[in-house]
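Dicarboxylate/amino acid:cation symporter, Velocimicrobium porci. Tokens?
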Amino acid sequence: MEKKKKLGLVPRLIIGIILGILIGSFLPEPIIRVVITMSTLFSTFLKFVIPLMILAFVTMGIADLTQGAGKLLATTAGISYASTLVAGTCAFFVAITLFPKFISADVIQSIGNPEEGMLDSFFSIPLTPIMDVTAAVALAFILGLCISSMRGKEIGDTCYNFFSEFSKIINKVLNVVIIPLLPLYIMGTFANMTVSGQTFAILSVLWKVFLVVICLHLIYLVILFTVSGTISKKNPIGMLKNQVPGYLAAIGTQSSAACIPVNIKCAESNGVCQEIRNFVIPLCANIHMAGSMITITCCVTSVLLMSNMEINLGIIVPFIMTLGIAMIASPGAPGGSIMSALPFLPMVGIGTESALASLLIALYITQDSFGTACNVSGDNAIAAIIDLIYKKFIKKEEKKESDVSEDAEAEPEGN
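Tokens:
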């Protein structure tokens, strides 16, 4: 018996957008408000889960980061974070230069305030999060750093195992409840925007943003591999060709974690030694988010421009720097990075539960495959640099220390 193919998240999301537009255009107000009520209830639950998600995934991400070779870990994490910051900052400069050319004053005027003219839900259920997002981030850092430094020395594995299982529980909630219901959430948002008369003005802009984002992904990869190839003295074109299987696997799976086996093979083709490829590729799958950062930065910039809200380097850079850390070990499900970003949207003036936030989710997930492919491919550019550092500096240093140790042991025998 053949296994039935499940409809992917992106097709379901597109169906949700279409249904939302149709519902908002043709159905009577009471039915539209029913859909909006369901979307609002989901939004309340999402707000409750977000601090738990931050606590679970960031704690485990930091706890796992210090398990490995100290110098290599610090170097890999530093390069990955720098790459993510550079990608986001460059994306902002491109977006702020190009987007105003097609997000004109007429479009901004036709959109107006996205919150005006929208319908209210019939009712809502008060569900207060256990802690606010700032407290969740602070607690996650404290716990993650303490577990990583004390585990196996001052404490056992109990705390580590607890948060490992806790993160699996939250991941289950995301995969079974949050991700499957996202199309309903988006459907309610687009139904409400259609009622307020803003949907088509917004959609006329988003497809252009989509094209710019994908071009930025590809350009950034070419630059990253050129820099990596120059530093490691490898042919960047050959490295890019070797990366094609990893890129395609990421587009198909939308998961950095699922691409690790294929990506390790790509690293092997690029001449990266076994020790480094087995260390760097799984690590960067969790901490290198250049593609996701490009997408989120462009999406946020476009939404702020469409809403005629303030946007400048002073606003976006702190957001990028915070998000670069918050996305550590973001869940492997499609849309995991934008879920990690939601609590920090108020930094740029977008409410976590606002229509603009759900618009960002819709725009992000429709191209999540390409963002993941950029993340995964960039991991191998970093692996080539770390491989050079390992062979040129660390391995030689370890050999010297080994030779000195052997000489010290052999000296008493000579006496």
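The chain has a mean pLDDT of 82.
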